[in-house]
Amino acid sequence: MSKPIRLAVVAALAVALIPSIGPAQLGHDTLRNAPVTEEPPAPRLPTVENRDLRRMRAYPMQPPTIPHKIDDYQLDLNANKCMSCHSRVRTADTQAPMISVTHYQDRDGNFLAELSPRRYFCTQCHVPQTEVKPLVGNEFIDVDQLIRRQRSGSR
Ligand code: HEC
Ligand code: HEC
Predict the structure, then answer these.
(1) For 15-40, how does the pLDDT look when each residue is reduced to its tens digit (9 = 90+)?
(2) Which atom of ligand 1 is nearest to the CA of 54?
């Protein structure tokens, strides 16, 4: 087959396959199991977990998830509400854990007196959790479990 014909065949196959991967087959609720042309009623907003208990991290360098509500906390060019509790100077009053030293480092590892601009928008990395059933399964195994399995000889 010449190259243009091969391309045409691939394109035709791709178009033929698209309708067969509908939302039903994908099987997750982000598409609300409805055709894209329809707008089914929106599901209820889930409740944000607000137990104030720090959660275990899945690995040491994981940005911890936020164990409290962040509704109406201003986080934009003008103000960073998070820092009113989590900055070094506020932790005695608030008993919030201080942002770690990495938040005071620039990308070359130099230490700064102030929060590094690359860590300003906290919710880029830290997110609250909601009380919902996970949309997709997860087989993540943490490193301690892995080591334990290897020591006991099973896999
Ligand atoms: C009113 C004070 C306050 C504000 C504002 C606040 N926090 Fe917190 N935060 C806390 C306290 C206190 C804790 C300790 C656990 C708890 O009590 O919820 C905490 C815990 C956390 C943790 C968990 C740390 C860990 O080691 O597990 C993260 C992440 C966090 N906050 C991020 C944020 C972000 C992001 C914002 C802004 C959107 C924010 N916080 C705003 C007080 C605050
Ligand atoms: C670019 C990603 C990123 C951004 C942005 C960021 N963090 Fe973090 N944060 C992390 C990571 C990764 C960790 C865990 C490793 C570490 O300490 O560096 C962490 C750790 C923390 C901890 C736990 C500190 C400890 O010693 O237990 C707190 C609290 C926290 N961040 C709050 C914040 C707040 C508040 C902001 C916004 C001002 C913020 N972070 C912005 C990635 C980020």
Answers:
(1) 555 555 544 455 555 667 777 788 88
(2) 27
SS (H, E, C) 13-27: HHHHHHHHCCHHHHC
Q: Ligand 1 in contact with 99 (CB < 6 A)? A: no
Ligand 2 centroid distance, CA of 130 (Å): 20
DSSP 8-state class, residue 128: B
Strand pairing partners for 130? 48
Give the pLDDT confidence score for residue 150 in this predicted structure. Answer: 93
Q: What is the pTM of this model?
A: 0.83
94-106 core/surface letters (b: 16 or more CB in 10 A; e: else)? eebebbeeebbee
